[in-house]
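Q: A reviewer asked whether we had any structural model of the full assembly, not just the individual parts. We don't, so I'm hoping you can provide one. Inputs are below.
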Amino acid sequence: MTPHSEENHTGAVVAFTNVKIGFEEGDVLRGVSFEVMPRETLVLLGETGTGKTLTLKLAAGLLRPNQGKIEVLGQEVSSMQEQELLTYRRQVGFVFQEGALFDSMTVGENVAYRLREDRLDEDEIESRVQESLRFVELEHTGEMLPSELSGGMRRRVSIARTLATRPPIVLYDSPTAGLDPVTAQTIITLILQLRDVFGVTAIMATHRLQDGFGLARFRFDPESKRVVRLGSDEGSAAAARAEGDEPATRFMVYRDGRVYFEGKPEELAESKDAYLQKFLV
Amino acid sequence: MADTPFQVAGREAKPVVRISMGEVLTDAFKQLLANIQDYSLMAGRSLANLASGPRYFQDILDQMDDIGVGSLPIVLMAGFFIGAVMVLQTGSQFTRFGQTALTGDVVAIALVRELGPTLTGILVAGRSASGIASELGSMLVTEQVDAMRAMGTDPSRKLVTPRVLAGILMLPLLTALNDFIGLLGGCVASVFSLRLNAVEFWTRAINALDFADIMQGMMKPLVYGFILATVGCYKGLTVRGGTQGVGRATTQAVVVASVMIIGADLFLTKLALYLGDKIF
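A: Here is a predicted structure for the entire assembly that you could use as a starting point for your response.
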Protein backbone atom coordinates (compact mmCIF):
# COMPACT_ATOMS: atom_id res chain seq x y z
CA MET A 1 0.00 0.00 0.00
CA THR A 2 1.45 3.36 -0.99
CA PRO A 3 0.56 6.14 1.41
CA HIS A 4 -1.29 9.01 -0.24
CA SER A 5 0.97 11.99 -0.69
CA GLU A 6 -1.22 14.33 -2.69
CA GLU A 7 -3.25 16.51 -0.38
CA ASN A 8 -4.81 19.90 -0.85
CA HIS A 9 -3.53 23.11 0.78
CA THR A 10 -5.24 22.30 4.11
CA GLY A 11 -3.69 18.83 4.14
CA ALA A 12 -7.03 17.14 3.43
CA VAL A 13 -7.20 14.11 1.17
CA VAL A 14 -10.87 14.67 0.38
CA ALA A 15 -12.40 18.16 0.38
CA PHE A 16 -16.01 19.05 -0.50
CA THR A 17 -16.75 22.77 -0.83
CA ASN A 18 -20.38 23.91 -1.00
CA VAL A 19 -21.41 20.89 -3.09
CA LYS A 20 -24.95 20.83 -4.41
CA ILE A 21 -26.67 18.15 -6.44
CA GLY A 22 -30.29 17.55 -7.32
CA PHE A 23 -32.49 15.61 -9.68
CA GLU A 24 -35.96 16.03 -11.17
CA GLU A 25 -37.48 15.22 -7.78
CA GLY A 26 -35.59 18.09 -6.11
CA ASP A 27 -32.27 18.94 -4.48
CA VAL A 28 -30.61 16.22 -2.44
CA LEU A 29 -27.38 17.89 -1.29
CA ARG A 30 -27.81 21.61 -0.65
CA GLY A 31 -24.35 22.97 -0.06
CA VAL A 32 -22.24 20.38 1.70
CA SER A 33 -18.69 21.17 2.82
CA PHE A 34 -16.31 18.87 4.70
CA GLU A 35 -12.76 17.58 4.68
CA VAL A 36 -11.19 14.20 5.37
CA MET A 37 -7.61 14.16 6.57
CA PRO A 38 -5.02 11.45 5.80
CA ARG A 39 -5.72 8.10 7.53
CA GLU A 40 -8.93 9.52 8.92
CA THR A 41 -12.25 7.67 8.73
CA LEU A 42 -15.34 9.78 8.21
CA VAL A 43 -18.54 8.02 9.26
CA LEU A 44 -21.47 9.41 7.32
CA LEU A 45 -24.83 9.01 9.03
CA GLY A 46 -28.27 10.03 7.87
CA GLU A 47 -31.73 8.78 7.15
CA THR A 48 -32.51 7.06 3.85
CA GLY A 49 -32.48 9.50 0.94
CA THR A 50 -30.38 12.17 2.65
CA GLY A 51 -27.57 11.79 0.13
CA LYS A 52 -25.01 9.51 1.79
CA THR A 53 -24.50 7.29 -1.26
CA LEU A 54 -24.58 10.37 -3.51
CA THR A 55 -21.71 11.85 -1.51
CA LEU A 56 -19.64 8.71 -2.06
CA LYS A 57 -20.48 8.63 -5.77
CA LEU A 58 -19.52 12.29 -6.06
CA ALA A 59 -16.20 11.62 -4.33
CA ALA A 60 -15.58 8.69 -6.70
CA GLY A 61 -16.36 10.87 -9.72
CA LEU A 62 -19.35 8.69 -10.68
CA LEU A 63 -21.60 11.76 -10.52
CA ARG A 64 -20.92 15.41 -11.19
CA PRO A 65 -22.19 18.07 -8.78
CA ASN A 66 -24.51 20.82 -9.99
CA GLN A 67 -22.45 23.30 -8.01
CA GLY A 68 -19.41 23.35 -5.74
CA LYS A 69 -15.93 21.88 -5.78
CA ILE A 70 -14.70 18.38 -4.93
CA GLU A 71 -11.00 17.75 -4.46
CA VAL A 72 -9.59 14.27 -3.87
CA LEU A 73 -5.88 13.50 -3.60
CA GLY A 74 -5.12 17.04 -4.71
CA GLN A 75 -7.11 16.70 -7.93
CA GLU A 76 -10.27 18.63 -8.68
CA VAL A 77 -12.67 15.80 -9.48
CA SER A 78 -15.70 18.01 -10.13
CA SER A 79 -14.14 19.58 -13.25
CA MET A 80 -12.60 16.44 -14.79
CA GLN A 81 -13.59 15.08 -18.19
CA GLU A 82 -14.80 11.46 -18.40
CA GLN A 83 -11.43 10.24 -19.74
CA GLU A 84 -9.56 11.87 -16.84
CA LEU A 85 -12.10 10.43 -14.41
CA LEU A 86 -11.40 6.89 -15.63
CA THR A 87 -7.75 7.33 -14.66
CA TYR A 88 -8.63 9.07 -11.39
CA ARG A 89 -11.07 6.35 -10.28
CA ARG A 90 -8.31 3.76 -10.28
CA GLN A 91 -6.90 5.48 -7.18
CA VAL A 92 -10.16 5.23 -5.24
CA GLY A 93 -11.69 2.02 -3.92
CA PHE A 94 -15.47 1.72 -3.73
CA VAL A 95 -17.27 -0.98 -1.75
CA PHE A 96 -20.87 -1.01 -2.91
CA GLN A 97 -23.82 -1.75 -0.65
CA GLU A 98 -24.59 -5.17 -2.13
CA GLY A 99 -21.03 -5.83 -3.24
CA ALA A 100 -21.80 -5.21 -6.95
CA LEU A 101 -19.71 -8.21 -7.98
CA PHE A 102 -19.77 -9.09 -11.69
CA ASP A 103 -22.10 -12.06 -11.61
CA SER A 104 -20.85 -13.61 -14.85
CA MET A 105 -17.29 -13.84 -13.47
CA THR A 106 -15.87 -16.08 -10.77
CA VAL A 107 -14.76 -14.63 -7.45
CA GLY A 108 -11.12 -14.83 -8.56
CA GLU A 109 -11.90 -13.05 -11.83
CA ASN A 110 -13.77 -10.35 -9.92
CA VAL A 111 -10.79 -9.70 -7.67
CA ALA A 112 -8.42 -9.81 -10.64
CA TYR A 113 -10.60 -7.54 -12.79
CA ARG A 114 -8.71 -4.27 -12.35
CA LEU A 115 -5.32 -6.02 -12.42
CA ARG A 116 -6.16 -7.64 -15.78
CA GLU A 117 -7.33 -4.27 -17.09
CA ASP A 118 -3.88 -2.93 -16.17
CA ARG A 119 -2.37 -5.89 -18.07
CA LEU A 120 -0.27 -7.06 -15.14
CA ASP A 121 1.73 -10.26 -15.38
CA GLU A 122 -0.51 -13.34 -14.77
CA ASP A 123 1.73 -14.60 -11.95
CA GLU A 124 1.55 -11.21 -10.25
CA ILE A 125 -2.24 -11.17 -10.69
CA GLU A 126 -2.55 -14.66 -9.22
CA SER A 127 -0.48 -13.77 -6.17
CA ARG A 128 -2.35 -10.47 -5.58
CA VAL A 129 -5.71 -12.25 -5.92
CA GLN A 130 -4.70 -14.94 -3.45
CA GLU A 131 -3.32 -12.35 -1.05
CA SER A 132 -6.52 -10.28 -1.21
CA LEU A 133 -8.78 -13.32 -0.79
CA ARG A 134 -6.64 -14.56 2.09
CA PHE A 135 -7.03 -11.16 3.73
CA VAL A 136 -10.82 -11.59 3.78
CA GLU A 137 -10.43 -15.31 4.65
CA LEU A 138 -12.05 -16.48 1.43
CA GLU A 139 -9.12 -17.97 -0.44
CA HIS A 140 -11.12 -21.16 -1.09
CA THR A 141 -13.81 -19.30 -3.09
CA GLY A 142 -11.68 -18.27 -6.08
CA GLU A 143 -13.47 -20.58 -8.55
CA MET A 144 -16.97 -19.94 -7.20
CA LEU A 145 -19.55 -17.64 -8.77
CA PRO A 146 -20.90 -14.70 -6.71
CA SER A 147 -24.37 -16.29 -6.78
CA GLU A 148 -22.98 -19.21 -4.75
CA LEU A 149 -21.86 -16.92 -1.91
CA SER A 150 -23.81 -15.55 1.06
CA GLY A 151 -24.46 -11.81 1.39
CA GLY A 152 -21.64 -11.38 3.89
CA MET A 153 -19.19 -13.31 1.74
CA ARG A 154 -20.07 -11.15 -1.25
CA ARG A 155 -19.24 -8.01 0.76
CA ARG A 156 -15.93 -9.57 1.81
CA VAL A 157 -15.09 -10.38 -1.81
CA SER A 158 -15.98 -6.80 -2.69
CA ILE A 159 -13.48 -5.61 -0.06
CA ALA A 160 -10.89 -8.04 -1.48
CA ARG A 161 -11.54 -6.66 -4.98
CA THR A 162 -10.97 -3.15 -3.68
CA LEU A 163 -7.86 -4.17 -1.76
CA ALA A 164 -6.30 -5.84 -4.82
CA THR A 165 -5.72 -2.43 -6.42
CA ARG A 166 -4.14 -0.96 -3.24
CA PRO A 167 -6.12 2.30 -3.25
CA PRO A 168 -5.15 5.05 -0.78
CA ILE A 169 -8.84 5.94 -0.30
CA VAL A 170 -11.78 3.57 0.14
CA LEU A 171 -15.43 4.58 0.07
CA TYR A 172 -17.81 2.18 1.84
CA ASP A 173 -21.50 2.35 1.01
CA SER A 174 -23.44 0.80 3.92
CA PRO A 175 -21.07 -2.18 4.07
CA THR A 176 -23.01 -3.90 6.87
CA ALA A 177 -26.57 -3.19 5.69
CA GLY A 178 -28.79 -6.26 5.88
CA LEU A 179 -26.17 -8.46 7.56
CA ASP A 180 -26.47 -10.35 10.82
CA PRO A 181 -24.49 -8.86 13.76
CA VAL A 182 -21.69 -11.44 13.61
CA THR A 183 -21.10 -10.99 9.87
CA ALA A 184 -21.38 -7.21 10.27
CA GLN A 185 -18.65 -7.38 12.91
CA THR A 186 -16.45 -9.37 10.52
CA ILE A 187 -16.85 -6.62 7.91
CA ILE A 188 -16.01 -3.90 10.44
CA THR A 189 -12.90 -5.85 11.49
CA LEU A 190 -11.81 -5.96 7.85
CA ILE A 191 -12.33 -2.20 7.57
CA LEU A 192 -10.25 -1.75 10.75
CA GLN A 193 -7.53 -3.90 9.21
CA LEU A 194 -7.52 -1.89 5.98
CA ARG A 195 -7.15 1.27 8.04
CA ASP A 196 -4.60 0.08 10.59
CA VAL A 197 -2.53 -2.23 8.39
CA PHE A 198 -2.62 -0.39 5.07
CA GLY A 199 -3.25 3.18 6.28
CA VAL A 200 -6.35 3.67 4.18
CA THR A 201 -8.32 6.92 4.38
CA ALA A 202 -12.02 6.16 4.31
CA ILE A 203 -15.53 7.52 4.12
CA MET A 204 -18.17 5.08 5.35
CA ALA A 205 -21.85 5.73 4.80
CA THR A 206 -23.96 3.73 7.23
CA HIS A 207 -27.24 3.53 9.09
CA ARG A 208 -25.64 1.67 11.97
CA LEU A 209 -24.09 3.89 14.60
CA GLN A 210 -22.37 0.91 16.25
CA ASP A 211 -20.27 0.45 13.08
CA GLY A 212 -18.93 3.98 13.49
CA PHE A 213 -18.24 3.53 17.20
CA GLY A 214 -16.54 0.21 16.40
CA LEU A 215 -14.10 2.07 14.15
CA ALA A 216 -13.65 4.86 16.70
CA ARG A 217 -13.07 2.70 19.77
CA PHE A 218 -11.03 -0.18 18.41
CA ARG A 219 -7.93 -0.71 16.37
CA PHE A 220 -6.38 -3.72 14.71
CA ASP A 221 -3.00 -4.64 16.09
CA PRO A 222 -0.98 -6.14 13.21
CA GLU A 223 1.51 -7.72 15.63
CA SER A 224 -0.96 -9.71 17.68
CA LYS A 225 -3.41 -9.86 14.73
CA ARG A 226 -6.22 -8.96 17.12
CA VAL A 227 -8.74 -6.17 17.49
CA VAL A 228 -7.92 -4.19 20.65
CA ARG A 229 -9.81 -1.44 22.40
CA LEU A 230 -8.28 2.03 22.23
CA GLY A 231 -7.40 3.33 25.68
CA SER A 232 -6.91 -0.17 27.09
CA ASP A 233 -3.47 -1.48 27.98
CA GLU A 234 -3.39 -3.56 24.84
CA GLY A 235 -4.57 -0.59 22.78
CA SER A 236 -1.87 1.66 24.23
CA ALA A 237 0.77 -0.98 23.57
CA ALA A 238 -0.44 -1.34 19.99
CA ALA A 239 -0.46 2.45 19.56
CA ALA A 240 3.08 2.63 21.00
CA ARG A 241 4.24 0.03 18.49
CA ALA A 242 2.64 2.16 15.77
CA GLU A 243 4.63 5.15 17.10
CA GLY A 244 1.59 6.69 18.75
CA ASP A 245 -0.22 7.08 15.48
CA GLU A 246 -3.84 6.93 16.63
CA PRO A 247 -6.37 6.53 13.80
CA ALA A 248 -8.91 9.35 13.81
CA THR A 249 -12.63 8.75 13.34
CA ARG A 250 -15.10 11.55 12.82
CA PHE A 251 -18.87 11.47 12.48
CA MET A 252 -20.97 13.53 10.12
CA VAL A 253 -24.77 13.54 10.13
CA TYR A 254 -26.84 14.71 7.17
CA ARG A 255 -30.26 16.24 7.52
CA ASP A 256 -32.31 17.73 4.68
CA GLY A 257 -29.34 17.82 2.35
CA ARG A 258 -27.06 19.69 4.74
CA VAL A 259 -24.42 18.75 7.31
CA TYR A 260 -26.34 18.73 10.59
CA PHE A 261 -23.54 17.51 12.83
CA GLU A 262 -19.81 17.05 12.39
CA GLY A 263 -17.55 16.06 15.24
CA LYS A 264 -15.81 13.44 17.31
CA PRO A 265 -17.55 10.22 18.41
CA GLU A 266 -17.75 11.36 22.04
CA GLU A 267 -19.36 14.67 20.99
CA LEU A 268 -22.04 12.74 19.15
CA ALA A 269 -22.50 10.32 22.03
CA GLU A 270 -22.94 13.13 24.53
CA SER A 271 -25.20 15.26 22.33
CA LYS A 272 -28.63 16.14 23.75
CA ASP A 273 -29.97 17.16 20.32
CA ALA A 274 -33.33 15.47 19.69
CA TYR A 275 -32.52 14.59 16.06
CA LEU A 276 -29.11 13.12 16.92
CA GLN A 277 -30.65 11.22 19.81
CA LYS A 278 -32.66 9.26 17.23
CA PHE A 279 -29.42 7.74 15.96
CA LEU A 280 -28.14 7.01 19.45
CA VAL A 281 -31.13 5.01 20.63
CA MET B 1 -62.48 24.44 6.71
CA ALA B 2 -62.72 21.16 4.98
CA ASP B 3 -64.56 21.08 1.69
CA THR B 4 -64.88 17.34 1.53
CA PRO B 5 -65.03 14.57 4.16
CA PHE B 6 -61.55 13.47 3.10
CA GLN B 7 -59.91 16.79 3.85
CA VAL B 8 -58.52 17.49 7.29
CA ALA B 9 -60.01 20.69 8.68
CA GLY B 10 -57.57 23.54 9.07
CA ARG B 11 -55.19 22.27 6.40
CA GLU B 12 -54.99 23.69 2.94
CA ALA B 13 -56.32 21.45 0.26
CA LYS B 14 -53.74 20.43 -2.32
CA PRO B 15 -54.12 22.70 -5.34
CA VAL B 16 -55.39 20.83 -8.36
CA VAL B 17 -52.74 21.15 -11.04
CA ARG B 18 -54.33 21.11 -14.46
CA ILE B 19 -52.01 20.14 -17.28
CA SER B 20 -53.17 20.90 -20.80
CA MET B 21 -52.99 18.35 -23.60
CA GLY B 22 -50.55 20.69 -25.37
CA GLU B 23 -48.12 20.54 -22.45
CA VAL B 24 -48.34 16.74 -22.30
CA LEU B 25 -47.60 16.45 -26.03
CA THR B 26 -44.77 19.01 -25.84
CA ASP B 27 -43.17 17.16 -22.93
CA ALA B 28 -43.50 13.82 -24.72
CA PHE B 29 -41.94 15.28 -27.87
CA LYS B 30 -39.05 16.78 -25.89
CA GLN B 31 -38.51 13.44 -24.16
CA LEU B 32 -38.50 11.66 -27.52
CA LEU B 33 -35.90 14.09 -28.89
CA ALA B 34 -33.75 13.67 -25.77
CA ASN B 35 -33.94 9.87 -26.14
CA ILE B 36 -32.98 10.06 -29.83
CA GLN B 37 -30.07 12.32 -28.92
CA ASP B 38 -28.84 9.98 -26.17
CA TYR B 39 -29.24 6.94 -28.43
CA SER B 40 -27.35 8.63 -31.27
CA LEU B 41 -24.51 9.66 -28.98
CA MET B 42 -24.22 6.16 -27.53
CA ALA B 43 -24.39 4.51 -30.97
CA GLY B 44 -21.83 6.94 -32.41
CA ARG B 45 -19.46 6.40 -29.49
CA SER B 46 -19.72 2.64 -29.81
CA LEU B 47 -18.17 2.91 -33.29
CA ALA B 48 -15.75 5.72 -32.42
CA ASN B 49 -14.34 3.52 -29.64
CA LEU B 50 -12.95 1.20 -32.33
CA ALA B 51 -10.47 3.87 -33.34
CA SER B 52 -8.61 3.83 -30.02
CA GLY B 53 -7.79 1.48 -27.12
CA PRO B 54 -8.42 -0.24 -24.88
CA ARG B 55 -10.14 -2.88 -27.00
CA TYR B 56 -11.75 -5.93 -25.48
CA PHE B 57 -11.10 -8.74 -28.00
CA GLN B 58 -12.24 -11.52 -25.68
CA ASP B 59 -15.55 -9.72 -25.08
CA ILE B 60 -15.96 -9.28 -28.86
CA LEU B 61 -15.41 -13.02 -29.40
CA ASP B 62 -17.81 -13.88 -26.56
CA GLN B 63 -20.49 -11.67 -28.07
CA MET B 64 -19.90 -13.06 -31.57
CA ASP B 65 -20.41 -16.51 -30.10
CA ASP B 66 -23.56 -15.43 -28.27
CA ILE B 67 -25.16 -13.40 -31.08
CA GLY B 68 -23.85 -15.49 -33.98
CA VAL B 69 -23.59 -19.13 -32.90
CA GLY B 70 -26.36 -18.73 -30.32
CA SER B 71 -28.84 -17.47 -32.92
CA LEU B 72 -27.95 -20.11 -35.50
CA PRO B 73 -30.62 -22.73 -34.62
CA ILE B 74 -33.59 -20.34 -34.76
CA VAL B 75 -32.31 -18.61 -37.90
CA LEU B 76 -31.76 -21.90 -39.73
CA MET B 77 -35.07 -23.42 -38.70
CA ALA B 78 -37.04 -20.31 -39.59
CA GLY B 79 -35.15 -20.00 -42.89
CA PHE B 80 -35.95 -23.58 -43.89
CA PHE B 81 -39.65 -23.23 -43.23
CA ILE B 82 -39.96 -19.78 -44.83
CA GLY B 83 -38.25 -21.07 -47.98
CA ALA B 84 -40.61 -24.02 -48.09
CA VAL B 85 -43.70 -21.87 -47.52
CA MET B 86 -42.56 -19.43 -50.22
CA VAL B 87 -42.40 -22.31 -52.72
CA LEU B 88 -45.86 -23.56 -51.74
CA GLN B 89 -47.41 -20.09 -52.02
CA THR B 90 -45.76 -19.07 -55.30
CA GLY B 91 -45.99 -22.56 -56.75
CA SER B 92 -49.77 -22.65 -56.32
CA GLN B 93 -50.04 -19.47 -58.39
CA PHE B 94 -47.55 -20.55 -61.05
CA THR B 95 -49.36 -23.89 -61.46
CA ARG B 96 -52.37 -22.01 -62.86
CA PHE B 97 -50.16 -20.75 -65.72
CA GLY B 98 -48.09 -23.91 -66.05
CA GLN B 99 -44.95 -22.00 -65.06
CA THR B 100 -43.92 -23.85 -61.90
CA ALA B 101 -40.31 -23.85 -63.13
CA LEU B 102 -40.15 -20.13 -62.28
CA THR B 103 -40.59 -20.92 -58.60
CA GLY B 104 -36.85 -21.17 -58.05
CA ASP B 105 -36.31 -17.70 -59.54
CA VAL B 106 -38.90 -16.04 -57.34
CA VAL B 107 -37.89 -17.75 -54.14
CA ALA B 108 -34.21 -16.96 -54.68
CA ILE B 109 -34.77 -13.28 -55.38
CA ALA B 110 -37.28 -12.84 -52.54
CA LEU B 111 -35.09 -14.66 -50.05
CA VAL B 112 -31.76 -13.11 -50.91
CA ARG B 113 -32.98 -9.56 -51.42
CA GLU B 114 -35.61 -9.24 -48.76
CA LEU B 115 -36.82 -12.11 -46.63
CA GLY B 116 -33.43 -13.50 -45.65
CA PRO B 117 -31.92 -10.30 -44.22
CA THR B 118 -35.10 -8.89 -42.70
CA LEU B 119 -36.28 -12.13 -41.20
CA THR B 120 -32.82 -12.79 -39.77
CA GLY B 121 -32.73 -9.25 -38.40
CA ILE B 122 -36.09 -9.59 -36.67
CA LEU B 123 -35.34 -13.08 -35.32
CA VAL B 124 -31.97 -12.04 -33.91
CA ALA B 125 -33.52 -8.85 -32.54
CA GLY B 126 -36.07 -11.01 -30.71
CA ARG B 127 -33.34 -13.13 -29.26
CA SER B 128 -30.29 -10.92 -28.83
CA ALA B 129 -31.64 -7.37 -28.44
CA SER B 130 -33.79 -8.64 -25.57
CA GLY B 131 -30.87 -10.59 -24.12
CA ILE B 132 -28.56 -7.59 -24.32
CA ALA B 133 -31.16 -5.27 -22.75
CA SER B 134 -31.90 -7.64 -19.87
CA GLU B 135 -28.23 -8.40 -19.21
CA LEU B 136 -27.11 -4.78 -19.20
CA GLY B 137 -30.27 -3.69 -17.37
CA SER B 138 -29.63 -6.23 -14.61
CA MET B 139 -26.02 -5.08 -14.38
CA LEU B 140 -27.22 -1.50 -14.07
CA VAL B 141 -29.75 -2.12 -11.28
CA THR B 142 -27.28 -4.24 -9.29
CA GLU B 143 -24.68 -1.44 -9.56
CA GLN B 144 -22.30 -3.60 -11.61
CA VAL B 145 -22.06 -0.86 -14.25
CA ASP B 146 -21.20 1.68 -11.54
CA ALA B 147 -18.67 -0.78 -10.10
CA MET B 148 -17.09 -1.03 -13.53
CA ARG B 149 -16.91 2.74 -13.80
CA ALA B 150 -15.58 2.98 -10.24
CA MET B 151 -12.70 0.70 -11.26
CA GLY B 152 -11.81 2.96 -14.17
CA THR B 153 -13.42 0.98 -17.00
CA ASP B 154 -15.49 2.75 -19.64
CA PRO B 155 -18.76 0.74 -19.95
CA SER B 156 -19.17 2.03 -23.48
CA ARG B 157 -15.93 0.28 -24.51
CA LYS B 158 -16.37 -2.82 -22.37
CA LEU B 159 -20.09 -3.46 -22.80
CA VAL B 160 -21.45 -1.59 -25.83
CA THR B 161 -18.72 -1.72 -28.50
CA PRO B 162 -18.17 -5.52 -28.36
CA ARG B 163 -21.91 -6.14 -28.74
CA VAL B 164 -22.29 -3.66 -31.60
CA LEU B 165 -19.27 -5.01 -33.46
CA ALA B 166 -20.46 -8.59 -32.94
CA GLY B 167 -23.92 -7.64 -34.25
CA ILE B 168 -22.46 -6.01 -37.37
CA LEU B 169 -20.12 -8.94 -38.09
CA MET B 170 -22.53 -11.78 -37.31
CA LEU B 171 -25.73 -10.66 -39.04
CA PRO B 172 -24.38 -10.95 -42.63
CA LEU B 173 -23.06 -14.45 -41.87
CA LEU B 174 -26.36 -15.52 -40.33
CA THR B 175 -28.20 -14.03 -43.30
CA ALA B 176 -26.04 -15.95 -45.78
CA LEU B 177 -26.80 -19.20 -43.95
CA ASN B 178 -30.47 -18.30 -43.71
CA ASP B 179 -30.57 -17.68 -47.48
CA PHE B 180 -28.95 -21.03 -48.22
CA ILE B 181 -31.16 -23.00 -45.84
CA GLY B 182 -34.21 -21.11 -47.13
CA LEU B 183 -33.37 -22.21 -50.68
CA LEU B 184 -32.82 -25.73 -49.39
CA GLY B 185 -36.27 -25.66 -47.77
CA GLY B 186 -37.70 -24.31 -51.04
CA CYS B 187 -35.97 -27.09 -52.97
CA VAL B 188 -37.39 -29.77 -50.68
CA ALA B 189 -40.89 -28.31 -50.99
CA SER B 190 -40.65 -27.96 -54.77
CA VAL B 191 -39.41 -31.54 -55.21
CA PHE B 192 -42.05 -33.11 -52.98
CA SER B 193 -44.97 -30.76 -53.61
CA LEU B 194 -44.50 -29.38 -57.13
CA ARG B 195 -42.60 -32.42 -58.46
CA LEU B 196 -39.83 -30.17 -59.77
CA ASN B 197 -36.36 -31.46 -60.44
CA ALA B 198 -33.90 -30.41 -57.68
CA VAL B 199 -31.14 -29.60 -60.18
CA GLU B 200 -33.51 -27.46 -62.21
CA PHE B 201 -34.63 -25.60 -59.05
CA TRP B 202 -31.05 -24.81 -57.99
CA THR B 203 -29.96 -23.88 -61.51
CA ARG B 204 -32.83 -21.42 -61.95
CA ALA B 205 -32.43 -20.06 -58.42
CA ILE B 206 -28.72 -19.35 -58.86
CA ASN B 207 -29.10 -17.96 -62.38
CA ALA B 208 -31.87 -15.62 -61.24
CA LEU B 209 -29.49 -13.85 -58.86
CA ASP B 210 -27.06 -11.20 -59.97
CA PHE B 211 -24.39 -9.28 -58.10
CA ALA B 212 -26.73 -6.41 -57.15
CA ASP B 213 -29.09 -8.87 -55.41
CA ILE B 214 -26.26 -10.31 -53.35
CA MET B 215 -25.01 -6.82 -52.46
CA GLN B 216 -28.49 -5.77 -51.40
CA GLY B 217 -28.90 -8.90 -49.31
CA MET B 218 -25.53 -8.47 -47.58
CA MET B 219 -25.72 -4.69 -47.07
CA LYS B 220 -28.94 -4.77 -45.09
CA PRO B 221 -27.81 -7.12 -42.28
CA LEU B 222 -24.83 -4.88 -41.53
CA VAL B 223 -27.28 -2.13 -40.61
CA TYR B 224 -29.69 -4.52 -38.88
CA GLY B 225 -26.89 -5.86 -36.68
CA PHE B 226 -25.95 -2.33 -35.71
CA ILE B 227 -29.58 -1.46 -34.95
CA LEU B 228 -30.40 -4.48 -32.79
CA ALA B 229 -27.19 -4.24 -30.76
CA THR B 230 -27.36 -0.49 -30.16
CA VAL B 231 -31.06 -0.58 -29.28
CA GLY B 232 -30.48 -3.48 -26.87
CA CYS B 233 -27.57 -1.66 -25.22
CA TYR B 234 -29.43 1.66 -25.04
CA LYS B 235 -32.53 0.14 -23.49
CA GLY B 236 -30.43 -1.87 -21.04
CA LEU B 237 -28.27 1.02 -19.93
CA THR B 238 -31.23 3.38 -19.46
CA VAL B 239 -33.31 1.08 -17.26
CA ARG B 240 -35.26 2.83 -14.53
CA GLY B 241 -37.34 1.23 -11.83
CA GLY B 242 -35.45 -1.88 -10.68
CA THR B 243 -36.23 -5.38 -11.88
CA GLN B 244 -39.63 -4.33 -13.20
CA GLY B 245 -37.83 -1.77 -15.32
CA VAL B 246 -35.54 -4.49 -16.68
CA GLY B 247 -38.58 -6.44 -17.90
CA ARG B 248 -40.00 -3.32 -19.53
CA ALA B 249 -36.69 -2.48 -21.19
CA THR B 250 -36.40 -6.02 -22.56
CA THR B 251 -39.81 -5.81 -24.21
CA GLN B 252 -39.13 -2.32 -25.52
CA ALA B 253 -35.78 -3.38 -26.97
CA VAL B 254 -37.42 -6.10 -29.09
CA VAL B 255 -40.28 -3.87 -30.23
CA VAL B 256 -38.12 -0.84 -31.04
CA ALA B 257 -35.39 -2.88 -32.74
CA SER B 258 -37.93 -4.81 -34.87
CA VAL B 259 -39.77 -1.66 -35.94
CA MET B 260 -36.49 0.13 -36.68
CA ILE B 261 -35.29 -2.83 -38.77
CA ILE B 262 -38.49 -2.86 -40.82
CA GLY B 263 -38.37 0.93 -41.18
CA ALA B 264 -34.71 0.85 -42.18
CA ASP B 265 -35.54 -1.88 -44.72
CA LEU B 266 -37.63 0.59 -46.74
CA PHE B 267 -34.80 3.10 -47.06
CA LEU B 268 -32.13 0.46 -47.57
CA THR B 269 -34.15 -1.18 -50.33
CA LYS B 270 -34.56 2.15 -52.11
CA LEU B 271 -30.83 2.87 -51.70
CA ALA B 272 -29.84 -0.62 -52.86
CA LEU B 273 -32.05 -0.39 -55.95
CA TYR B 274 -30.54 3.02 -56.78
CA LEU B 275 -27.00 1.73 -56.29
CA GLY B 276 -27.87 -1.42 -58.26
CA ASP B 277 -28.89 0.73 -61.23
CA LYS B 278 -25.95 3.12 -61.00
CA ILE B 279 -23.04 0.93 -59.96
CA PHE B 280 -23.59 -2.82 -60.16
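A: Points you may want to mention in the reply: The first helix of chain A runs from residue 52 to 59. Residues 1-5 of chain A have pLDDT under 50 and may be disordered.
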